[in-house]
Amino acid sequence: MPKKDPGLPAANPSHSPHHKAAGPQAPAPPQVVHDVSLLSDQDLYLFNEGTHLLLHHKLGDHPLEAGGQRGVYFAVWAPNAQRVFVMGDFNDWRNDELELWQRASSGVWEGFVPGLEPGVRYKFHLHSRHHGFKVDKADPLGVFHENPPLTASIVWELDYQWGDQAWQERRARSNFLREPMSIYEVHLGSWRRRPEDGGRSLTYRELAPELADYVANMGFTHVEFLPVMEHPFYGSWGYQTTGYFAPTSRQGSPQDFMFLVDTLHKRGIGVILDWVPSHFPSDNHGLVFFDGTHLYEHADPRQGFHPDWLSYIFNYGRNEVRSFLLSSARFWLEVMHADGLRVDAVASMLYLDYSRQDGEWIPNQYGGNENLEAVDFLRRFNSEVYGTFPGTQTIAEESTAWPMVSRPTYLGGLGFGFKWDMGWMHDTLHYMSREPIHRKYHHGQLTFRMLYAFTENFVLPLSHDEVVHGKGSLLNKMPGDDWQKFANLRLLLGYMYAQPGKKLLFMGGEIGQWREWNHDDSLDWHLLEFAPHAGLQGWVRDLNRLYQDEPALHERDASWEGFEWIDCNDSQASVVSFIRKGGQPGQVMLVAANFTPVPREGYRVGVPQGGYWREVLNSDAGDYQGGGLGNAGGAMASDEPCHGRPYSLSLTLPPLAVVFLRLEG
Q1: What's the predicted TM-score (pTM) here?
Q2: Numbered ranges of CATH 2.60.40.10 in the chain
Q3: Active site residues
Q4: Whether the predicted pLDDT of 232 surpasses 90
Q5: Would you identify the CATH topology of the domain 41-154?
Q6: Fewer CB near the terminus (10 Å): N or C of the chain?
């Protein structure tokens, strides 16, 4: 049976020596046993070859029993160290007492310390072979670390009794290219806070029922968490990772995080994690200059230092680094039961000259700017994920025209399942921020994406990046008075759900947050006391339900067969109309969007079939605090040809609104 989840240990802020009991009853000092190992020769061979994908079972800290004694086995990779010690609150942080043993020429140092239990804090103290360099490091494979700004690792076991078997089995049968995927992007520390308790963030266990209830009620299929991996600077939102195998301790233990994932799964909600193999921070306790050499990063700053983020770039050509990163990916999918990984800043990995001027980068062996080692790493990563974890997804945040990002590796692609459509996001937000009177001059920003919409498997993102750093909230990007702002935002979200591609919306967008997102504050949930905000939330809820219920809106998200323009050229009226189609005959949805505040009465739209077209959703409906203009439930097609089709509808298009009509025969 799984062991009971131990509680959080008490903090040791300074790592200063503890006072031990005096006299003959004082416990004997711990010793290191060097004949205990979890590493076989095959493990070391695979690690040095770059093909070991289970390092979290071998390196780091592992409580176990050896020689009849309970204790902890430690192992760390530091090939350029001359000596390595483990120290902690179990030996008063003495850095010259518990020396680890180097395992042949593998670069791994290991040792077993009897008498230790989960909950003790530790670090590695390294003496480098170079320049007399000495440093204290947190464990790169540690699964639990002190709450920042404290930096020690914590010995921990990962036993947990999962209850998500039904979810796992259902996921393994899924094909999300043809299924709805509506993602709610969440920063766990600021989604909801406790004002009655000093405004603190919710813990993982507090979040679990509240977030699961909310996401299920809103109809999202997935949540995507900004990086939960341990990070020293809270303001980095997790994108400056130091603990590649540890959920942040700010909100609880690893088991507490497992409970959050488990709870979401039991409610039928998938969990995607942001993962950052592109760079890591310069904090001294982390990976940088780990053993007195550039171990994880390139030594040459033209390859190893990121000018935008002042961080370090992994050396993807180093075998052991590849094993480290691939094992990290596997850890989150295997141990933490994540359903997908969204890889951050892929473009910065692919291009050697990313954000660099001439002379600031080194070409590849063929003289090009492609990072061939990163390309190889990403292909291996995707192959391993899809080959090992059925039904999981990988998603690339990739902002360039690199070809075949979401195409199989055997066809020459990078192998991702999906790619963020950054072009759609930029074009659409620029268009929507314009005064409606000017939109007719920029009509192409609405329609351009259909020239490339099926070159990749796209996710349409309205992410956290669009509501920070002075960009304004989604609602505040919209022009006009308050009524028009809400109408424009309902129109934007409706247009996103109507477009081919999976959906992603950052928290707060669904309630019409006025303020930019601030990671130190809760979302402004009190806004739901006001009708326009509650109406917007109801609109998003109904969009999610329609998107899931209608095969025409999701089955062919990644295929031309699922989309057909009716009219993409009516720039004078700033109206677009198109059809979405499912896999079966009769699964047809008509979408018409009016991007001006002028109602369009008797607007004729060609349709492929006669019969009754029921209006199933209208963003101007009174339930959403719109003006209530619409089509009295639907429209009957006449045999008047229009737009090259044998039938047509005479529609009322409300101002700044989108309408969905379903063919009912």
Answers
A1: 0.94
A2: 41-154
A3: 344, 397
A4: yes
A5: Immunoglobulin-like (2.60.40)
A6: N
